[in-house]
Amino acid sequence: MSFIEVEGLTKTYSASLNALHHVSFTVEKGEWIAVMGPSGSGKSTLMNILGGLDTPTSGRVILDGLDISRLSGNDLARFRAEKIGFVFQQFHLVPYLTAIENVMLAQYFHSLSDEREAAEALARVGLGDRLRHLPSQLSGGEQQRVCVARALINQPNVILADEPTGNLDEVNEALVMGLLTELHREGHTVVVVTHDPEIGRLAERRIELHHGRLTEVSAAPAHEEELIDDLLKAVWHAQEDTGRSVMEPDAVPEFAPNRATFLLMAQEGLVQLDTGAITFAPRGEARARHVLRRHRLSERLLCETFGIDKDVVDEHAAKIEHSLSPQVTEKICTFLHHPQTCPHGSPIPRGECCPKK
Ligand code: ADP
Ligand code: MG
């Protein structure tokens, strides 16, 4: 049995309107899925039912073995508090309570350590110095981070986030998505609603709703690592072209359409995005060097050994470079007598096998 089983979920608001129509899918424990689809397609309705905030007209949701469509009253409240952390697009903070009071309000198992725990949760989202601020004294991004702290306070298994970055600027979007990435890594099951395909790509799996029907369950992109390699390559190229090590996003045309992947790369310690500019972190630079080395050696190999034309060798190399292990790369380098430049004249980064000089 899966951690979450959604079976034939239907929600009817009026005779003519099915907000959800026989929706079925499963989510495994620790999985991160994105729910995508245009406005009005039933995403929020689905989330509210998953979180026990609304009931289906028919069908059921089994979460961690519990049929939540059968819960009511105290059982339902307890289920929500114990298992679910909700993050909404519209924040839903109580306006006359401070940040720490808003978080404490969500605490279900009250104890003497309430305040300390709430303060810790806020520190975790980077708001350790904003405990006594009212929502009106916080920016949108800060308010959303209070909501993430609130969602975490009961250590729920499942984080449900309904367009959590819908009202945020890019920097705060990155921060909030970074927090979700971290939570997923810690083992929480994450379901996030978004219509931003870039954010959807951060998830391991996407489901899509159209007019209340599940139209597509798409697998995670098999080539995430290759995409990261390509983006590292783009940063490297930009550095070569400009001779600078700190890149404005504009100088890397790949940045804008791949913001979420760059964010993922920052999370993984490959690049730094702190100031809005892009720089390599040491790990990223080492990986980029190796990617470039594989790419340019592949180009040399294809040109010299297989006589492939210089004008098209780039795309051929792009196909084989990802499959080269460090050992094979060294063999190719040695076979080609440690060439210094690619067929287009750009330098090939040196490797372990290359003569020192
Ligand atoms: P999404 O979150 O994908 O934008 P919703 O789940 O909010 O979509 O809404 C799906 C459909 O159900 C829409 O057509 C919306 O107008 C309708 N709907 C949502 N909530 C209600 C409600 N309480 N009463 C009547 N219709 C509703
Ligand atoms: Mg919605």
How would you explain this protein's 3D organization?
The protein is 39% helix and 18% strand. It has helices at residues 43-50, 73-83, 99-105, 114-124, 140-152, 170-185, 197-200, 224-242, 259-267, 282-306, 313-320, 326-335, and strands spanning 4-14, 17-27, 32-36, 58-63, 66-67, 84-88, 158-162, 189-193, 205-210, 213-218, 271-272, 279-280. The strands form three sheets. A six-stranded mixed sheet has the order 6-7-8-3-9-10, with helices on both faces. Strands 2-1-4-5 form a four-stranded antiparallel sheet, with helices on one face. The protein has a two-stranded antiparallel ribbon with strand order 11-12. A hairpin with a 2-residue loop joins strand 9 and strand 10. The mean pLDDT is 88. It is elongated. The chain has 357 residues and is α/β, with parallel strands linked by helices. The chain starts with a strand and ends in a 22-residue tail after the last helix. Among the domains are: 4-97 and 156-219, Rossmann fold (3-Layer(aba) Sandwich), CATH 3.40.50; 224-280. Residues 43-44, 162 line the site of magnesium ion (MG).
Question: Which properties best describe this structure?
Answer:
Rossmann fold; six-stranded mixed sheet; four-stranded antiparallel sheet; binds adenosine-5'-diphosphate; binds magnesium ion
Distinct small-molecule ligands in the complex: adenosine-5'-diphosphate, magnesium ion
| Global morphology | elongated
Q: Tell me the fraction of residues in β-strands, as a range.
A: 15-25%
Structural category is: alpha/beta
Helix coverage percent? 25-40%
What CATH architecture of the domain at 4-97 and 156-219 do you see?
A: 3-Layer(aba) Sandwich
Overall strand count: 12
- What is the CATH topology assignment of the domain at 4-97 and 156-219? Rossmann fold
The CATH homologous superfamily of the domain at 4-97 and 156-219 is termed P-loop containing nucleotide triphosphate hydrolases
